Amino acid sequence: MTEDLKSYLNKLISSVEGLLAIVITDRDGVPVAKVATEQAPELALRPNFLGTFGMATDQASKLNLSQNKTITAMYKNYQVVQMNKSPLLVTLIATRSANTGLLLEMDNYLLDVLKELQQVIIAS
Amino acid sequence: MGCCSSCFGADKEADYAGIPDERTRLLGSTVRNIQTPPVNGESLSSPVPTGAPPKDEQSALTRILTKTARNVIDVATIEGQGVEQHEYYERARHYSQKVSVILANKNKSLKPLLPNGVLAPQIILAAQPISLADIELISNAAVKAAKAMKDVKVQHKEDLVVAFGVP
C-alpha cells in the first residue's frame, strides 16, 4: 500500500510540468512520505532545509496577519513551495519555470493523503 | 558614596526612633520588606500588588513572560534546532512503519482526480469511428425511452392526505 502512495505522488509529479519533488514531513523535517525525480536538488531534500519552514511559518504567524499557510521561495534555478498542514509540512520543489499557481493548487490533490498521514504523527 | 551611606544611615536612625520627619517613608515597612521572587533567573523590580498571595503573583508573572516569549518574533531560534542524526533515522523508520500500517488498513485506494493520460493519442484518434447503424440504433432507443417517459401518467385514485384517528 506504501507503493500505492508513492505511485500516486509520482502521478502528481508528472501532472505538473517542472515539479521535481513532493516531500511530506513532520515539523522537524523528518520525512513521512517522499517522492523525488533525479533532477531534484539533493540539498533541498535534507531535513535541516525542510525543517526550517516549520519554524519560519510559526514566526510568520506572529505578524498579526493570522496563521501563515504557505511560503514560496524563488531561487535562480528552482522554486520551493512549502505548505503548513499542521502537524505536517508539505514541500514542493520545482524548476523556476514551473507554474507556481498549479503548485499552490496541489494541496487539493493531497487532501486525502494528508488526512491519512496526519494519523501517523498524531499516533506517535 | 559618602552621600549614599549617610542617607542610609539617616534612614535607619529615623526608623529606629519612630519619629516621623521628611525622610520617613509614607508607606509602612511591611511593603518595603516584600520582595518579588526572581522569575527565570531575573529579579523584577516593578511594583506588585500587595493584596494577592505570592503564588498567584508568581504564576501571573510566569504567564505574562510565557505569553511575551510566544509573541516575540525570534528569527535566531530557527538556527540550531535540528534533529540529531540517530533520532532522525529512528523517527523516519518509525514513520515508515506507521504509514504502512495505516495505509494497509485503508480500503479506498488513492487515485488521481484526473483520468490517466494516454502516451499515444494518435492510435485512439486514428481508430475506426462508430458505425452509422449503431448511432441510429442508440438514437432510436433514446427517442423511444423519452417518449415512454412522457407517456407515464399518474392516476389519481384516493386522497393523498389521510387523516389518522380523527373522528
From TrEMBL, chain A:
Tree of life domain: Eukaryota
Annotated GO CC locations: Ragulator complex
Gene Ontology biological-process annotations: cellular response to amino acid stimulus; positive regulation of TOR signaling
Gene3D superfamilies assigned to the protein according to its UniProt record, in alphabetical order: Dynein light chain 2a, cytoplasmic
InterPro entries membership: LAMTOR3
Family: Belongs to the LAMTOR3 family.
Protein name from the UniProt record: Uncharacterized protein
UniProtKB/TrEMBL annotation, chain B:
Example GO BP: endosomal transport
GO terms for cellular component: late endosome membrane; lysosomal membrane; membrane raft; Ragulator complex
Compositional bias per record (Polar residues), positions renumbered to this chain: 34-48
Gene Ontology molecular function: guanyl-nucleotide exchange factor activity; molecular adaptor activity
Stated family: Belongs to the LAMTOR1 family.
Protein name: Ragulator complex protein LAMTOR1
Domain of life the protein comes from: Eukaryota
Location in the cell: Late endosome membrane; Lysosome membrane
Topology in the lipid bilayer: Lipid-anchor
Positions of region (Disordered): 34-56
Keywords noted in UniProt: Endosome, Lipoprotein, Lysosome, Membrane, Myristate, Palmitate
Chief subcellular location: membrane
Protein species of origin: Potamilus streckersoni
Database matches in Pfam families: LAMTOR (PF15454)
Presence of keyword Lipoprotein: yes
